[in-house]
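Team,

Forwarding the record for the chain on the shared tracking sheet. I've put the sequence and predicted structure together so nobody has to dig through attachments.
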Amino acid sequence: MTNSTSSPQITILGLGPGDPHLLTRQAWQVLNEATEIYLRTRQHPTVDGFPPHLTAHSFDHLYEKAESFEALYREIVDRVLGLGQRPGGVVYAVPGDPYIAEATSPEIVRQARSRGISVQIVAGISFVEPVCAALGVDPLPQAALVDALELAQAHHPPFPPHAPALIAQLYSPHVASNVKLTLMATYPDTHPVCLVHGAGTSAQKVENLPLYQIDRSQHIGTRTSLYVPALGPGTSFEAFQEIIAHLRAPNGCPWDKEQDHQSLRPNLLEETYEVLAALDADDPDAMREEFGDLLLQIVLHAQIGSEYGEFTMAEILQGIHDKIIHRHPHVFGDLNADEAEEVIQHWERIKAEERRENGEDKGMLDGVPVALPALTQAEAYQKRAARVGFDWPDITGVMDKVMEEFDEVRNAPNEESRRAELGDLLFSVVNLARWHDVDAESALREANLRFKTRFTFLEKKACAQGRELSSYTFGELDGFWEEAKARD
């Protein structure tokens, strides 16, 4: 923003929320002294209250032929800059305040500065003040101010749900519908929200309704805003980080304050296996709880890293954000990849390029963690090798390899050789599972669970008959086993 000692070449004036009585004294003085004014849009009630002598032009005709809002705003900016270089300059007016929910003003100021064009900003009451007055709320300390057009194009709300949000420019049912879908990724369908129409004008109206109904309102127009109350305490990632930081603070928990990366390693491993157990059980309630427990470990490590000066959560998020975008040029770039197999090939090529750029002398298999369970590690090796074509052409070769390894176990000349051949047999069985799209680790865990369930049945049968398990013959126990399988 520039204020020159001489007359400014471009004056950007805020028209307020819509009632001419809410124009600032400075804005009214500018309007009275000017002979003509250029409006971003004439569709604003304040225009009807202009001084009679003022000639008003608008850019409304550009809206109809513009391919996008971005293109529209670029053309308006260019035209205002051009008008500003005339003798006497230009007065350009926008709804509300020039710097609140207004895309053209900041860009005009930026380009004007680079061209040495002086600019005066005449502030106006934005939509925020009358909307908050209509709702009876104070946006401080944490309310988010969000643009409906950007939110409508998103897949997830970009603000924390533990605080309220005020969404501007919800100007049509179509935009409201897309905004609703984005919000419903986080908020319940029935979350109570408020639509505020024509705030700061005589036509002001507040609608209280559930989120899923916002696009059905009959009152949506160019001056409609949406207020989304907080989802509740503890519902955002940021709120969770605060809790963990508090645990580690001087007035926090004695146990948590003593922990470091190494002392928490067993907890991280245990919680990971708890998650796997919930996945194996296909239990959504257990998944929700166990994912939370695992997240606790991750955020705790991030907090410790921040305290030690190693890294921050922002750096963790930035790193994985950049990595995902870089490795998905078919989504975020101009690369075409319609099949999953193409995606995998591009993925490996990109990772190889990253290793070369980082000066890492590593092969494809070096990225597989050495601490993985053996079955999972074997499958990871096989999948990576298969991505570059090192794989059987069909499952027949895989089956033959399993039988070949079985024969080598049976014919092993000594214990050392038999140990190695058993390892090869297990590796080939994992490959067979991969070809059948079966996760070997999960399959074995399920088999372990079936064994446990059936063996528990044996124990109960023996207890019911008042005998020790060891007193039964194998044939008797096998009969119990078949009975347990039948029950399954």
